[in-house]
Amino acid sequence: AWGKGVYFSLDKKWSGGKFTKHCYLKSLTPLVGNKITKEDRAKLSKYVGREVETLPILTLEKRGGDLISGLVLAGFDSFIGDGPGSTGLHIVIPNKNQIREVKETERSVN
Predict the structure, then answer these.
(1) What strand order describes the sheet that includes 78-82?
(2) Which of 67, 85, 94, 110 has the most CB atoms around it within 10 Å of its CB?
(3) Nearest to residue 29, comparing CAs of 21, 41, 42, 40?
């Protein structure tokens, strides 16, 4: 929906199925769609060439081909936002090198 990348659900009700994988995600400069900080706005404003108050989705899509590619060009390495419908929060990682599957021996026992 947002572009190329690997999508992860952050909502536990969408995990636990037979295709669930536990992964480490490396995200140093995420953009959280519903909590854009002053620093995020400054970075986005510099990238689009005008002052922005909210996420400039159409500009990012136009410049990058899709939202995720546009955010990468603007200097972000992932996107966290509400998924479609009522599927909760999702994180999109654009580069598979930012993902490492957690080995069974690394999992904590609760």
Answers:
(1) 6-9, 89-93, 78-82, 30-32
(2) 67
(3) 40
